Amino acid sequence: MKMHRFEEIWLVLAVAVIVISMVLTGYQTFALGMGPPSNKETIDPQKVDETAPFDEPGVYEIGENEYEVVMTLQIFSFNPGDIEIPAGSTVHFTMTSKDVIHGFQVPGTNLNAMVMPGHIQKISQTFDEPGEYLVLCNEYCGTGHQQMGMTITVK
Ligand code: CUA
Q1: Are 65 and 71 in contact (CB under 8 A)?
Q2: pTM confidence score
Q3: d(CA 69, CA 84)
Q4: Of the N and C termini of the chain, which has fewer Cβ atoms inside 10 Å?
């Protein structure tokens, strides 16, 4: 088969772009653990307070350097509020909303999730660096939206 020189170059470039994209996406997914939160459990948003585990929101130690944070979001707060965990811990957040759509974002980490009424959101993060991490609601949820925040203290 006879191919024009430019055709060959473009063919190689096109295949290279596809391969590079796949490698990058794979690296982000498997090496960096980046990916959209994809938990698919549902809950009756009217009965959050009576439904386990949300009947007892809080921070639970579930293993060595491993914690679960059971959290409800409502206008305009997080429950539990400010939390504290030891450095090097992996924290699994289990969250749901009691009213409208809220956001859960921790700048400087991979934590960024939409928390919707009727759905249970799960997202994990390892906190190696000590410090104060600001948690923000990044979905407009009403007049007090800009005040909806909390801190995670890692020490
Ligand atoms: Cu909750 Cu904005």
Answers
A1: no
A2: 0.79
A3: 11
A4: N
Reported in sequence order, the residue ranges of 98-147 that DSSP labels E, i.e. its strands, are: 102-105, 112-115, 119-127, 131-136
Q: Identify the structural domains of the chain with CATH numbers, from first to last.
A: 41-154 (2.60.40.420)
Residue nearest to atom 1 of ligand 1 (CA): 102
Q: What is the pLDDT of residue 110?
A: 86
Ligand 1 center to 118 CA (angstroms): 16
Atom of ligand 1 nearest to the CA of 142: 2
DSSP 117: B
Q: Is the CB of 68 under 6 A from ligand 1?
A: no
Count other Cβ atoms within 10 Å, centred on residue 31.
8
The answer on pLDDT for 38 being more than 90 is: no
Cβ neighbour number for residue 153 with a 10 Å cutoff: 13
Is cis: bond before 54, omega within 30 of 0? no
Read off the pLDDT of residues 22-36 as tens digits, 9 standing for 90 and up: 999 999 989 987 777
Q: Give yes or no for a contact between 67 and 60, defined as CB atoms under 8 angstroms apart.
A: yes
Residues found in the chain:
155
